[in-house]
Design goal:
By secondary structure, the protein is mainly beta. Helix content is 4%, strand content 56%.
């Protein structure tokens, strides 16, 4: 644990605040015309996912927890649990899918990801910003639609529904942005 100045808060940091662990989602430095400067931070509770907007006085100290990052391999999903293999110890790690969040949509069997923990307690997984998925179902190409930039719905191999350009066909591999769950480009 490190004691840091609130001016140094950054997105992704884990802090101990009000006897709970919170992940910093966003920060904004505010200097109003009257009164002292402060940092407006959006926080997400690590355990239950609740969100909190908190004001910290500029220069105030907070406890930042340092995360450990371990390479793991996703094995499979079993009902509401994702099973990973720790590539260093070869132990199975079970994580409830609700704790993983939307990132579970992008997990593929045999895929290596980083698992972040604090004192052996699961915090999150880090997936690539862009991933390749096969389109398993979409409507046929619409003639002349390339001129008007028309989009159509498509279902990917992971079951996710997204909008794709009209020229994308069934069976094609496309690149998806995992941040906003949108089509990026052809693979």
């Amino acid at each position: 644990m490190a004691n840091i100045n609130t001016n140094d808060l950054k997105c992704g940091y884990i802090i101990n605040h009000n006897k709970s662990l919170w992940k910093v989602i966003s920060t904004e430095h505010v200097k109003p015309g009257k009164g002292g400067a402060f940092i407006q931070a959006e926080l997400k509770n690590i355990k239950n996912g609740s969100k909190l907007n908190e004001r910290f006085r500029a220069g105030e100290k907070v406890d930042r927890l340092i995360m450990d990052s371990t390479e793991v391999q996703f094995s499979y999903k079993n009902h509401d649990t994702a099973i990973f293999l720790n590539l260093h110890t070869f132990e199975e790690v079970n994580v409830e899918i609700t704790r993983i969040g939307d990132s579970h949509l992008f997990l593929k069997e045999g895929q290596n990801v980083k698992m972040e923990t604090i004192e052996d307690d699961f915090i999150s997984i880090v997936i690539p910003e862009k991933m390749i998925f096969k389109v398993i179902d979409t409507e046929p190409e619409i003639k002349g639609a390339t001129l008007t930039n028309v989009q159509k719905p498509a279902i990917l191999e992971n079951g996710m529904k997204i909008m794709v350009p009209s020229f994308i066909k069934e069976g094609e591999d496309i690149i998806i942005s995992t941040q906003d769950k949108k089509y990026s480009e052809r693979a």
